[in-house]
Design brief:
mainly alpha, globular, 17 helices
Length: 351
C-alpha cells in the first residue's frame, strides 16, 4: 500500500476533518505561540515546564497508550494476541533500553535524541502524505529527506539557537546515571559544531523542499499540498528558533506530534472513522481517551519506578529528567509499533 492509496482509502469528509484537527489547528497554536515569544522567554523556568506536566495526561503521554490495539484494528488480529504481542515488544525493548541507560547513559541520551528525531519525522511524513496530500513523498529519498527535516526541527534547531538550555537538560538527564558523564557531550555544544550543523541542516531543508517542488512539476502533483509543506517547515524553523527549548518542545509534543498520531489512530478505528466522516471530533477524542486511560495510568508506574530507583530529588530539573528518561523507555517500543504501521500503510519501514 502506498501513501496515495492510504489517502484515497480515507473518506473525503473524514480526511477534511482530520486535516482541520491535526494539521491546521496545531499550526495555528504554534503560530500564536511565536507571537507571544517575548512573554514566554521571560517566564520563570518552572512555568516553562508546564507543557510537559500537562502532556502527562493530555495527548502527550497518552498518544502511545493505544499501541496494544493497533494490530487488532489495522490487521484484524484478535485482541488477546494484539495485547500479548505489543506487551511483549514493550517489555523486551524497555528492559533492554533501560540497561543501556544504566551502563552507558551518554549513549542512552544520544540514542534517545536520534530515536525521537526519526519518530517525530516519520509521524509528520504519514500526516503529510495520507492527510495533507503531499504526493511527492512517494519515493524513498523524498521520505527520508522529509524525516530528517521534520525530526530535526524539534531535535536540532533548539540546540542551534539555545545551546545553554539544551546542554542543561542533557546534563540533568545524564547525571541521573553518572554525575561526570555529561562532559563527553561538550563537543556537541561548541560554536564550530553548531555552525557546521546549522549549515548542513539548512542545506538538507532546502534540498528536501526543492526535491518536492521538482516532483510536483515533473509528475503534475498537488502544488497546494507542497506549499503546505513549505509553510509548515518555515513555521517550525521560526518556532524552535525563537522559543525556549523546554517550553517549545513540550507544546510541540502534545499539540503537534501527539495530535497527529491520535488522528492516525482514529482513522483505523471504525467507530471513530464514522464520526470523522460526519465531521464530528468529540466522539473520536472521547473514544481515544477511554482507550488510552488504562495504559496511561500504568505508564506512570515507569516514572515512579525511575524516581524511586534513581533516588531523584523533587527539584524541577530532576523531575523533568526522570520524565524524559521514562518517555525514552516508552518511545523505543512505540517507534517499533509505528514503524510496523508504516509498513502496513505506506509500504515502507523508513517512513
Amino acid at each position: 500500500m502506498t501513501a496515495a492509496s492510504v489517502r484515497s482509502s480515507l473518506p473525503v469528509l473524514a480526511r477534511s476533518t482530520l486535516s482541520r484537527a491535526t494539521l491546521r489547528w496545531p499550526a495555528y497554536v504554534l503560530a500564536a505561540t511565536i507571537l507571544v515569544w517575548p512573554i514566554v522567554s521571560q517566564l520563570p523556568t518552572r512555568v516553562r515546564y508546564a507543557p510537559f506536566l500537562v502532556s502527562v495526561v493530555v495527548f502527550g503521554l497518552p498518544h502511545g497508550a493505544v499501541d496494544h490495539l493497533v494490530p487488532a484494528r489495522l490487521a484484524g488480529v484478535r485482541r488477546r494476541r494484539s495485547y500479548a504481542v505489543v506487551g511483549g515488544v514493550y517489555a523486551v525493548l524497555m528492559a533492554g533500553y533501560l540497561l543501556v541507560w544504566l551502563v552507558a547513559p551518554v549513549v542512552g541520551f544520544v540514542s534517545f535524541i536520534l530515536l525521537t528525531w526519526y519518530h517525530w519525522g516519520q509521524g509528520d511524513v504519514y500526516a503529510l502524505a495520507a492527510i495533507g496530500g503531499v504526493g511527492s513523498l512517494s519515493g524513498r529519498l523524498d521520505r527520508w529527506l522529509s524525516i530528517i527535516v521534520r525530526g530535526g526541527l524539534p531535535m536540532l534547531v533548539p540546540l542551534l539557537s539555545h545551546p545553554d538550555e539544551y546542554r542543561a537538560v542533557a546534563t540533568a538527564i545524564v547525571s541521573l546515571f553518572a554525575a561526570d558523564a555529561s562532559g563527553t557531550l561538550g563537543v556537541v555544544f561548541t560554536p564550530d559544531t553548531r555552525l557546521v550543523a546549522a549549515i548542513a541542516f539548512a542545506g538538507v531543508t532546502i534540498a528536501s523542499l526543492a526535491l518536492g517542488l521538482y516532483r510536483v512539476r515533473q509528475d503534475r502533483l498537488n502544488a497546494r499540498a507542497w506549499r503546505r509543506d513549505v509553510l509548515e517547515v518555515g513555521l517550525l524553523w521560526a518556532y524552535f528558533w525563537v522559543l525556549p527549548p523546554i517550553f517549545a518542545i513540550g507544546v510541540y509534543f502534545a499539540v503537534w506530534h501527539a495530535v497527529r498520531h491520535i488522528g492516525r489512530l482514529a482513522a483505523i478505528d471504525d467507530r471513530s472513522l464514522t464520526a470523522l466522516t460526519a465531521g464530528e471530533l468529540r466522539a473520536p477524542v472521547g473514544r481515544f481517551a477511554r482507550d488510552a486511560a488504562p495504559l496511561t495510568a500504568a505508564s506512570l508506574l515507569v516514572f515512579v519506578g525511575l524516581f524511586v530507583g534513581l533516588s531523584v530529588g523533587i527539584d524541577p530539573d530532576s523531575l523533568l529528567a526522570v520524565y524524559l528518561v521514562g518517555i525514552a523507555l516508552l518511545t523505543l517500543p512505540h517507534v517499533a509499533v509505528v514503524t510496523w504501521m508504516d509498513r502496513r500503510q505506506l509500504g515502507t519501514g523508513a517512513g
